[in-house]
Design brief:
Layout lengths: L1 H10 L6 E6 L12 H17 L4 E6 L5 H13 L4 E4 L17 E5 L18 E11 L7 E5 L29 E4 L6 E4 L9 E4 L5 H12 L9 H5 L4 H4 E2 L33 E2 L6
Parallel strand pairs: 1-2, 3-4, 4-5, 5-7
Antiparallel strand pairs: 5-6, 8-9, 10-11
Helix pairs in contact: 1-2, 2-4
């Protein structure tokens, strides 16, 4: 990871990273056994934080396994080591929200890549966590922004059976509504990743999935410098005056068919500029963070 990150940053003209790796017990040794599949994920996550916040200190906490007890131990260790922002690019069922709800810490998680309702899981569905959906981002040189952006059809989203946060008041979901915000995720319009750990794709390749968004936006929270004052996705729901100036509203595309429509389809709908897969939009600077 360290050598891949160094090459990534060199390629894009970034200074040497403030990077450290730990096991779930806080040691800089005795790491868990390597995994080629997770190696691709880890490179993507760390490089995306690096891309959006080059001067952020990045701690990689390697859990012993994908079991919740190990993942939750890694969450606890990240905070113990001083992290104010914790990014999670995995999803599943059976996590304990208490491990993702530390006062003064902003937690983010990817919404998954299975479309409406099918890939929603922990920890993104917790109200204490910023749930990050996915978009398709393509060049449009004739537009002032220079890009077109629509909902990525495989973005996870929906109305999972988690307690609805007090700051959500949308009419069509009695539970926690996902997502809060989004970033590019479509592999067809994805991001550059450098990975030499036998990824099978070659050293440089294009990566996709909502795994991009959680670390990329974690870096933006780092730039904003106020992660300790955040409360999960509340910032995106409670301050709607930000929407037009600080977030790019996603106005087309869907990740499935549902009722009410806004939970899976972007555009004019029952809840203004919001849509489940894209949330309130994608970042236009740090103002919404």
């Amino acid at each position: 990871m360290a050598s891949d990150l160094a090459e990534y940053r060199k390629t894009f003209g970034l200074p040497k990273a403030h990077f450290r790796k730990y096991n779930q017990d806080g040691q800089q040794s005795n790491y868990p056994q390597g995994s080629y599949a997770w190696g691709v994920e880890i490179d993507l996550d760390v490089e995306m934080v690096s891309a959006s916040c080059p001067n952020c200190s990045i701690f990689l906490i390697e859990a012993n396994s994908v079991g919740w007890s190990d993942l939750e131990a890694a969450e606890t260790m990240a905070v113990a080591l001083g992290a104010h922002i914790v990014s999670n690019s995995y999803t599943g069922g059976g996590a304990d929200q208490n491990y993702y709800d530390t006062k003064g810490v902003t937690y983010l998680a990817s919404a998954g890549d299975g479309g409406f309702e099918y890939a929603i899981g922990d920890p993104a569905d917790f109200g204490s966590v910023v749930s990050v959906g996915g978009t398709t981002l393509s060049r449009a040189r004739q537009k002032a922004r220079g890009w077109n952006e629509t909902v990525w059809s495989n973005s996870g989203a929906g109305c999972p059976h988690q307690t609805k946060p007090a700051w959500q008041h949308d009419p069509g979901c009695a539970y926690r509504t996902m997502n809060d915000v989004s970033a590019v995720a479509d592999p067809a319009t994805g991001v550059a990743e450098y990975d030499t750990y036998n990824s099978g794709y070659g050293d440089w390749f294009i990566a996709g999935g909502t795994s991009i968004g959680s670390p990329l936006l974690a870096g933006i929270f780092g730039l904003a410098g106020n992660a300790a004052q955040q409360d999960g996705g509340k910032t995106f729901w409670a301050t709607k005056h930000e929407i037009k100036q600080d977030l790019f509203v996603i106005s087309s595309g869907s990740d499935g068919s549902c009722s009410p429509r806004y939970l899976c389809t972007a555009g004019t709908n029952e809840y203004g500029n919001y849509s489940g897969p894209a949330g309130w939009g994608t970042p236009n600077g740090i103002g919404a963070f």
